[in-house]
Amino acid sequence: MDHIKAIAFDLYGTLYDVHSVVARCDEQFPGRGREISAIWRQKQLEYTWLRSLMNRYVTFEQATEDALRFTCRHLRLDLDNDACKVLCEAYLRLQPFPEVADTLRELRRRGLKLAVLSNGSPHSIGAVVGNSGLRAEFDHLLSVDPVRVYKPDDRAYLLAETAFGVTRSSILFVSSNAWDATGARYFGFPTCWINRSGNVFEEMGQTPDWQLGGLDELLPLFDSRGSALSRT
């Protein structure tokens, strides 16, 4: 039996649907929303990884705007400053996945400490969580901004261990991003990969301790006191 004292959640794509910006993209560029969102998200991730490798940190808001501008140039779309502002602000109002709110409340009821650990800035994380009405469910909203490097760098994951004040083996890290779950597993967190789309996990030398189809599937892993059941 393992005993998990706390859970750290990735934000983007795990708790909140990054593609909930599609409607706003469609408003600006009719019929192109899904295409824009897919490329925008991929470039956003690439820019965080590349900036970490180059030691050229910028805020998540800047990386997000840069990725959007690239996307529109790539797709030959005329993005003016007003449209850019509207679409970037849509990232502050992402929608949580349907099962998220009830799952977080039940985990807290069972006595678990919860945190967000995200590449987002303090402003971005606070806006997304606050706009969805879920701020009260978290003990900590942790941004990589203080260490100025993005996940999957170890310094980012260390933020959760420090904030919770318990050993990393007692913190379950939950992410829908396989690269993120891999980095967390190398750091020493027990990990849970939320695989909503039936994807294949990365071939980078690690596997998640649990693979689930949605956040609500976390609940059967814990008894009513918050004690974690054995790995599957």
TrEMBL record:
Q: List the GO molecular function terms.
A: (S)-2-haloacid dehalogenase activity
Q: Where are the transmembrane segments?
A: none
The keyword Cytoplasm belongs to this UniProt entry's keyword annotation: no
Catalytic activity from the UniProt record: an (S)-2-haloacid + H2O = a (2R)-2-hydroxycarboxylate + a halide anion + H(+)
Q: Which InterPro entries match?
A: 2-HAD (IPR006328), HAD-like_sf (IPR036412), HAD-SF_hydro_IA (IPR006439), HAD_sf (IPR023214), PGP-like_dom2 (IPR023198), S-2-haloacid_dehalogenase (IPR051540)
> What keyword terms does UniProt attach to this protein?
Hydrolase
Which Enzyme Commission number(s) are on file for it?
3.8.1.2
Q: What does this protein do?
A: Catalyzes the hydrolytic dehalogenation of small (S)-2-haloalkanoic acids to yield the corresponding (R)-2-hydroxyalkanoic acids.
Q: Its family?
A: Belongs to the HAD-like hydrolase superfamily. S-2-haloalkanoic acid dehalogenase family.
NCBIfam families documented for this protein: HAD-SF-IA-v2, HAD_type_II
Protein name (Swiss-Prot/TrEMBL): (S)-2-haloacid dehalogenase
Native source organism of the sequence: Paraburkholderia gardini
